[in-house]
Amino acid sequence: MKRADAVRATWLCTRQGFVAIRALARNGVLAAETVAVDVVPGFSAVAPYIADVAETCLAIRIARSDGADPLTALLDGWAAAGPVGRYWLAETVRDYAGRSAYQGLMTAVGKDPSSFPDRGADTSGRSRRVAWCNNILLAGFLDIRELAAPGGPLGEDDAALRRIEDIADTCHRLPCPDGLPAVLRPWLIRQELRGGWSSNSESGRRWCRERSEAGGLRPPAAIRRLIAPDRASG
């Protein structure tokens, strides 16, 4: 797979992962998907579907945040995925990253992993803003996976679907560093966040603020000002 295709595929999978999870939380599994992944339509199978997509995307984000080559990150996502996640990943790469990227991914999954680039310390364009975005995107997929996990709240409480929807809706509007030119990432992150923040629900904004302050994810001052409660009205 060409590196440009792999880079494009990784950030599109992140964005479309949140879009797909939001749609599943709102509408359940669509009838058109049931043949390909052998699940029943509606909400009875929505929890494992959401969990598998989140698991796939989480593996990609962890790999990229650790500095892995983008192709290696996609293969990490493939390895972590179940049948639903692999179906979703292949379809997403084909539909959004293009046929060249899709063919490259399908070729790569059948090869010996030792033939792929080593995990290197890709530090291009790193900053506190980049680190914050990566951490929040990771947190989004992590929290969604836990909500949808077997025995988790989604199996017992429909309110968990609204929680998942809020998290996914908020995260899909956050900047994804992989999709931004390295030299401009810190500036573009602030501009994209400024443009989309007020469109988030209050519960989504609250989740992002809480996650930003938890576990050492405290954002840099410029982002902290943008997501402060008094910015909620725009």
Give a description of the structure.
The protein is mainly alpha-helical. Helix content is 65%, strand content 0%. It is built from eleven helices and no strands. The chain has helices at residues 3-27, 31-37, 46-65, 70-80, 83-97, 99-108, 128-148, 159-172, 185-196, 202-213, 221-226. Helix 3 runs antiparallel to helix 7, helix 7 packs across helix 9 (185-196) and helix 8 (159-172) crosses helix 10. The protein is globular and about 45 Å long. The N and C termini lie far apart (42 Å).
Brief summary:
65% of the residues lie in helices and 0% in strands.
Which terms would index this structure?
234 residues, mainly alpha, 0% strand, globular
Question: Which helices and strands occur, and which strands form pairs?
Answer:
Blueprint: H1 3-27, H2 31-37, H3 46-65, H4 70-80, H5 83-97, H6 99-108, H7 128-148, H8 159-172, H9 185-196, H10 202-213, H11 221-226
Radius of gyration: 17 Å
Helix content: 55-70%
How would the global form be characterised? globular
The succession of helices and strands, N to C, reads HHHHHHHHHHH
Which runs of at least 5 residues are low in confidence (pLDDT < 50)?
A: none
Number of helices: 11
Describe the largest sheet. none
State mean pLDDT (0 to 100 scale): 85
Number of β-strand runs = 0
| Alpha carbon gap, first and last residue | 42 Å
Structural class: mainly alpha
* Proportion of strand residues: under 5%
